[in-house]
Write a structure and sequence with these properties.
mainly alpha, globular, 73% helix, single chain
Length: 302
């Protein structure tokens, strides 16, 4: 990997490791719908400008049906569920659970016809990864301060969305400029949540901290993230890009511990090792081709 590749890799590992912290901070004062609307509307402004400069909006609008499907599965559903879940869930735990997205991607690839996606070593990885999630969740659900079970379920639904949405890009939007797809998707989701956010605005009393968290979430973790990620793909290719999945949860757990005083126990470390080992095994490329299981890195960090 070149020096530029390493810089982009480290940048993406950090950028897509901090959304969970920012969401956790934002939902302390803002309704989840307001967080999603703020994130998408600000990010859409940035991405649509870039898309316009690259003549990418019209090609995306011509394929509006799959673009809208991508927007709903990749952004509209998971972002609201994640915001609701993090009202009760530690940001580090959310980041660790979402680290299993590549495992979901491997299962989705198999269901779409990639027979190599579930070779024996990958099946082992799926079991190890989900065992790690079960270990983390089981440990976190103990005690009086345990998060509600439905918040864990919401994050697992987010994993399913993140793990499957990129296949819409691969199968239905191949050749459509990425900036156009992302910019139009963000704009569509912002329009969808505008009336919901408007209704809930009266009950919101945001602090400067929560407002800054939403702005950072939009500009850094969404707008800038996609720009950097596309450059990373060009630099190191889709086969190696999924490796950022292994760094994101480290950042999420570390930031949660340092800035939000979230506990990092021996159980957290054991669960982390199991999840990361499972992801590595479940996404190992076959000897003769890059599996579709590597595709979901596009979505695993949002």
């Amino acid at each position: 990997m070149t020096k530029r590749g390493w810089v982009l890799f480290v940048a993406m590992s950090f950028i897509w490791g901090i959304p969970y912290l920012l969401i956790r901070v934002a939902v302390r004062q803002l309704e989840p719908a307001m967080v999603v609307f703020g994130r998408t509307s600000i990010a859409a402004t940035v991405l649509l400008v870039l898309a316009h400069r690259n003549n990418a909006i019209v090609p995306a609008l011509r394929r509006w049906r799959p673009v809208l499907a991508f927007a709903i599965i990749e952004m509209a559903i998971p972002w609201i569920l994640l915001a609701i879940a993090e009202q009760h869930l530690a940001s580090g735990l959310a980041g660790l659970i979402i680290a299993t997205v590549p495992i979901v991607g491997a299962i989705a690839a198999f269901s779409l016809g990639d027979q190599s996606a579930l070779r024996r070593v990958r099946v082992l990885g799926i079991f190890v990864g989900f065992a790690g999630v079960a270990f983390l969740v089981g440990n976190d659900l103990r005690g009086d301060s345990a998060p509600p079970l439905w918040s864990i379920a919401m994050v697992l639904i987010v994993c399913v969305c993140y793990g499957t949405a990129p296949f819409i890009i691969e199968r239905k939007l191949a050749g459509v400029p990425s900036f156009g797809v992302i910019g139009v998707s963000l704009g569509a989701v912002a329009l969808l949540y505008a009336p919901i956010a408007g209704v809930s605005a009266a009950s919101n009393h945001p602090t400067l901290q929560s407002v800054l968290a939403v702005i950072a979430l939009a500009l850094v973790c969404t707008g800038l993230a996609f720009v950097v990620f596309f450059k990373l793909l060009d630099e190191i290719g889709p086969a190696r890009a999924p490796l950022i999945t292994f760094a994101n949860p480290v950042v999420a757990v570390a930031l949660g511990a340092v800035l939000l005083d979230e506990s990092v126990t021996s159980a957290t470390l054991v669960g982390f090792v199991l999840v990361m080992t499972g992801c590595w095994l479940a996404t190992r490329p076959s000897s003769n081709a890059v599996s579709l299981g590597s595709v979901p890195v596009v979505a695993s960090s949002l």
